[in-house]
Write a structure and sequence with these properties.
The structure holds two protein chains of two kinds. By secondary structure, chain A is mainly alpha-helical. Chain A contains twelve helices and no strands. Chain A has two domains: 137 residues, Serine Threonine Protein Phosphatase 5, Tetratricopeptide repeat (Alpha Horseshoe), CATH 1.25.40; 131 residues, Alpha Horseshoe (Serine Threonine Protein Phosphatase 5, Tetratricopeptide repeat). In chain A, 40% of the residues are buried. The chains are: A mainly alpha, B alpha/beta.
């Protein structure tokens, strides 16, 4: 009997302790939120990290959402840091919250936070899109792809975003290739980018045009970079290679023409290809079209 | 708490970009023709009287890309001679050219040029189908999308020029 009383007392004590701990964690979450409201972000961070470290609140959608917003505010204070770890921590928290939010109670606030954070990632990626920093842009784009579903479940919209980024990245590669046309690394990177876009969207006029230009420019550069003193015996194989590139360029440029037959840059591309292939009839056809369109302007 | 988290989302996503086409195909064609012409100076031998002073190439016609490409030869030499590219509209009986290159639009002047260089050692280069049969020594033609040449050996040798067999072998049969 005495033994049973001891057991009862122990269980009761355990229950009380658990309740106290649970309350403590709940209060950690509440205090974190209060600190957040007071813009005391260091204390907010300490308390929310304590709350999510505890098994009781480790799977609490609200706790993770609060954490997301706290880190979002920390990021806002260090916004000049385009590779801010706080921004990624915020997105990670929002993703956790979304995962634990089975009743979708916190959905809209999670979407709002994700929209803000992803739009800043996107802006920073745009700023990195240049021949020097493009790899940082790629890293940010990877994060955008990872977290995009938090703000928009439409796969079509996500693909549009990816395509737009790839188009811009392709432009960066092209600008590098303008300076060093036979840089194999960037030729392959640019080809990879346009192939990826065309897999997602075969009617993408920019990708068709740029893929056409990629081959065309390589064909032209092969010729114009050749030494004026090149022996006549080497002219034939050099021309063979360039003609092959011009012919590889053609289907992409013709596809771009099918999509928009009045786009001047496409018509100029086709005119250039047929000039390079010495097809006078087709060269004249596209030349005439360009003149007609220019007259209408 | 929810009320506090009202965010204005400004969508600043990427916009499409297009690369501007560098119109270099004319330059490429011109470059190939210039390489050919420079090769003519190596595979054709002029008599001693034409190996003095500048090595003069007359350019008859108007094609800026081609002229600019050929003008790059101004820095080069043929033996001890400096290459000089001259833009010409006609040829007079007293002028001395190592090569005269007649562009397609000026092909009608071929007969006149031939009459003016009679007895001289000038290589006549043309750029229109059929002209190798009408008196030019070398005629540019296109075949299988490539720039090629027709060499009319007798037309060249008529002007006391010697043509290397390699050049003849690299050329198309005269049509």
């Amino acid at each position: 009997m005495k033994f049973l009383n001891i057991i009862r007392t122990f269980i009761l004590g355990l229950l009380l302790l658990t309740a106290a701990v649970t309350n403590a964690q709940q209060s950690k979450m509440e205090s974190a939120f209060k600190f957040y409201e007071q813009n005391n972000l260091e204390s907010a961070k300490a308390d929310i990290n304590a709350a999510i470290s505890n098994p009781e609140t480790a799977k609490d959608a609200q706790a993770w959402q609060i954490r997301g917003y706290i880190y979002k505010s920390i990021y806002k204070n260090e916004k000049s840091n385009k590779q801010s770890p706080a921004r990624l921590e915020a997105l990670k928290s929002i993703k956790k919250s979304e995962g634990f939010d089975t009743k979708k109670e916190y959905l809209q606030l999670n979407i709002n936070a994700a929209q803000y954070l992803i739009s800043t990632l996107s802006n920073d990626a745009v700023e990195f899109l240049d021949p020097v920093d493009y790899e940082k842009a790629i890293e940010l784009e990877k994060k955008i792809i990872e977290y995009y579903p938090l703000m928009d479940s439409s796969i079509t919209n996500q693909q549009k975003q990816e395509i737009a980024f790839d188009e811009n990245l392709g432009t960066v590669y092209s600008s590098i290739l303008d300076k060093s046309p036979e840089n194999t690394k960037f030729v392959n990177l640019a080809k990879g980018i346009y192939e990826r876009i065309l897999t997602l969207d075969p009617d993408n006029i920019t990708a068709n045009l740029n893929m056409g230009l990629l081959y065309f420019n390589r064909g032209v550069n092969l010729i114009i970079s050749s030494d004026m003193e090149m022996d006549i015996t080497k002219l034939e194989p050099m021309q063979e290679k360039s003609v092959k590139l011009f012919k590889e360029s053609l289907p992409f440029m013709e596809r771009a023409y099918d999509i928009n037959p009045n786009k001047i840059v496409v018509l100029q591309g086709l005119k250039g290809i047929f000039h390079a292939l010495h097809d006078e009839e087709k060269f004249n056809f596209y030349q005439k079209k360009i003149e007609e369109i220019n007259k209408q302007k | 708490m929810k009320k506090l988290f009202l965010i204005l989302f400004s969508s600043v996503f990427f916009t499409s970009a297009i690369v501007v086409l560098p119109d270099q195909s004319e330059e490429a064609t011109a470059h190939i023709k210039s390489i050919y012409i420079y090769n003519f100076t190596k595979y054709i031998e002029w008599p001693d009287t034409y190996r003095e002073g500048n090595f003069v190439i007359g350019f008859m016609g108007s094609n800026t890309s081609l002229f600019n490409e050929l003008a790059k030869l101004n820095t080069k030499k043929v033996g001890n001679q400096n290459i000089e590219i001259k833009n010409i509209t006609s040829v007079d009986a007293n002028s001395k050219f190592n090569i005269i290159y007649i562009l397609p639009d000026n092909s009608a002047q071929l007969a006149d040029v031939l009459s003016k260089v009679k007895g001289k050692s000038t290589l006549i280069v043309t750029d229109k189908p059929g002209l190798a049969k009408q008196g030019s020594g070398i005629n540019f033609v296109f075949l299988e999308n490539k720039q090629k040449i027709e060499v009319n050996r007798s037309n060249i040798e008529k002007y006391k020029l010697k043509v290397a067999i390699t050049l003849v072998e690299m050329s198309m049969p005269v049509n």
